[in-house]
Write a structure and sequence with these properties.
single chain; 163 residues; alpha+beta; Beta-Lactamase; 4-stranded antiparallel β-sheet; 4 helices; 47% helix; globular
Length: 163
């Protein structure tokens, strides 16, 4: 029995050292360029303009750090902060904010800086999460989210071709 335990331990150590040896000591994270982030924000604004709505669109990287903000001429000033918080929330939960609405009245939903209402869309193209876009200023979160997703669509094909 002692030999069997020793053999099993040696086997486990041997297998785990192969896994460790194959792992890289660093990770590669894909990020949007400034131009791509601006294209997402501008695409969201263009979609909302078609509906007669002026909004603010904020694009963040996968950590929630702002990459681009675009505010249409008559978008309400409060839309700047709300769009940023929607984008930040989507990026940190790796989900569209409309999918998080049921958590809004929980303890996690009351954390400062999070907004769990529709209008934040994850930028996930080809299984790679690049960040998120948040939109605010439309009369409903449904419209905000539709515009956010239109912004993502602007760069989706180019990102798919790049990989």
């Amino acid at each position: 029995m002692h030999f069997k335990t020793l053999f099993t331990s040696a086997l486990i150590i041997g297998l785990s050292s192969n896994v460790i040896a194959e792992d890289s000591p660093s990770v590669s994270i894909k990020r949007l360029t400034m131009e791509s982030a601006l294209a997402v924000a501008q695409g969201a604004i263009k979609e909302c303009r078609k509906q007669g709505v002026q909004i603010t669109a904020t694009v963040v990287d996968r950590n929630g750090t702002v990459q681009a903000i675009a505010r249409d001429t008559l978008a309400p000033p409060v839309s700047i902060d709300i769009s940023r918080m929607k984008a930040y929330t989507a990026a940190n939960f790796m989900a569209d904010t409309s999918a998080l609405a049921s958590r809004a009245n929980t303890s996690i939903g009351r954390v400062d800086g999070l907004v769990m209402s529709a209008g934040g869309a994850i930028i996930n193209v080809g299984g790679v999460v690049y960040g998120a876009v948040g939109v605010s200023g439309a009369p409903s979160g449904v419209t905000d989210e539709k515009c956010a997703k239109a912004g993502v669509k602007i760069i989706a094909e180019e990102l798919e071709m790049a990989d």
